[in-house]
Design a protein that fits this description.
nine-stranded mixed sheet, 12 helices, binds ligand LLP
């Protein structure tokens, strides 16, 4: 459920007409709903009620400071994967003890920054990382709390580019080697083992892969405890999918996911951490765009809109489906016609949808890409020298620009000309 609904024939973001925002900031732009962000965060928090837990928002999904501050004020922890993300979390007021640091390639500089500023735990992904982390912690006179990310070799049954839990993926250490690696970790003076970490992929639409992975983590917890390790925290990653197409069956709900966690892992008495990103931000954001031209092609009509693959890369990169709806509500029973919906970028890959049924549209009409809040703005670029588009946040009947559109001069002047020119 989200807060982007038609009212009196027009699409609203909470209590603000989308067309009003478009008139104020120009198109294209992203708009986020505060109520939806908070609702989704709380669904996870409530799903784990009765178990000691922390919901660490995976901010890679959407990391505008206004989004982070909204979630931080609601009590969220954060999952970060770079120094930039760590510093964003701190700037949003998240204390170090609520930040977990994931990622396969943490640099010495990033490790130092997090140790210095405070960190709940590093989710260590390899033996070389473990050695470097211990050495840096020792040098700084600190002890780094760690979990080790295990790769359970489970098929997440999602798009290949976002599956992470199979042995051929670069993530984690093979679960079969976990006991040896934990023994090494325990012997390193700069580390304190606090738990186990697992994350098998993103946009999972079934619970079964989670269950398979978590059952392996439960077994490993018991083995590691028997080996003398104090396993008191389980970080279960993110990955719960969202409904992208209204016509498809909805994926499992956070409550189902929470119940699964309690059923499979509850008896261990561990504190549970989860790292949802997409489910919190995905349906809390729209990408709003304007039709530039309607072009008649050979046997097909193209809707050329002012957003492009540089603004929302998911369709080009993952063949992802986003529902695209007109901002003026179509009259009931209005006939639809198929359009190829494309952006202005000079690549055929700049196609958002093929033969998508839409009511007849004309130049100047506004359309909204739904489910664009996660992995939308954060993955955008200035390809074709199209400046990054603004982000707007709505709360009730108020809206605010939370990242403004840069001017063309700002974009051009970021470059410097060598002296010899
Ligand atoms: N934790 C870790 C260690 C992760 O790598 C990820 C996502 C998450 C949590 C959050 O997963 P979520 O709850 O959002 O599924 N750009 C792709 C998605 C990449 C996901 C990467 N890792 C997309 O647009 O579909």
């Amino acid at each position: 459920m989200d807060h982007f609904l038609y009212r009196d024939g027009a699409l609203y973001a909470e209590d603000v007409p989308v067309a009003e925002i478009a008139a104020a900031v120009g198109t294209p732009f992203y708009v986020y709903s505060t109520a939806t962000l908070l609702r989704h965060f709380r669904l996870f928090d409530e799903a784990l009620e009765g178990t000691e837990h922390l919901v660490c928002y995976a901010m890679k999904a959407a990391s505008n400071q206004a989004i982070l501050t909204t979630l931080a004020q609601a009590g969220a922890g954060m999952d970060v994967v770079s120094m930039g993300e760590y510093l964003r979390a701190r700037a949003a007021g998240v204390p170090g003890e609520k930040i977990v640091f994931s990622g396969v390639g943490k640099t010495a500089e990033e490790i130092r920054c997090a140790l210095d500023g405070g960190i709940r735990q590093f989710n260590v992904e390899s033996e070389p990382e473990m050695e470097v982390l211990s050495a840096i912690a020792q040098e700084m006179g600190k002890v780094a709390p760690i979990t080790i990310r295990v790769n359970p070799d489970v098929d997440a049954r999602t798009h290949a580019k976002i599956a992470t839990g199979k042995s051929e993926n670069k993530f984690g250490i093979p679960i079969a080697r976990a006991r040896a690696v934990y023994a090494r970790a325990a012997a390193l003076p700069g580390l304190e083992v606090v738990g186990i970490d697992v994350h098998i992929g993103s946009q999972l639409t079934e619970l079964e892969p989670f269950e398979l992975a978590y059952a392996k983590v439960a077994e490993l917890t018991e083995q590691l405890r028997a080996d003398g390790h104090d396993i008191r925290r389980l970080d279960l990653g993110g990955g719960l999918g969202i409904p992208y197409a209204r016509s498809n069956a909805a994926p499992p709900l956070p409550t189902d996911y929470g119940n699964l966690i309690k059923r499979v892992l509850g008896h261990l008495g561990c504190e549970i951490e989860i790292e949802p990103g997409r489910l919190i931000a995905g349906n809390a954001g729209l990408l709003v765009s304007k039709v530039i031209y309607v072009k008649e092609g050979e046997g097909r009509d193209f809707l050329i809109v002012d957003a492009a693959m540089n603004d929302l890369i998911r369709p080009a990169m993952y063949e992802a489906h986003h529902d695209i709806v007109p901002v003026i509500e179509p009259a009931p029973g209005v006939e639809e016609q198929p359009y190829d919906i494309v952006g202005p970028v000079c690549e055929s890959g700049d196609t958002f949808a093929r033969q998508r049924g839409m009511p007849a549209l004309a130049a100047g009409d506004l359309v909204a890409f739904r489910s664009a809040g996660a992995y939308g703005a954060v993955m955008s670029s200035e390809y074709n020298s199209r400046p990054l588009i603004p982000e707007v946040m709505v709360k009730g009947d108020q809206f605010a620009v939370i990242r403004r559109r840069p001017t063309f001069d700002e974009m051009i002047n970021r470059d410097t000309i060598p002296e010899w020119l």
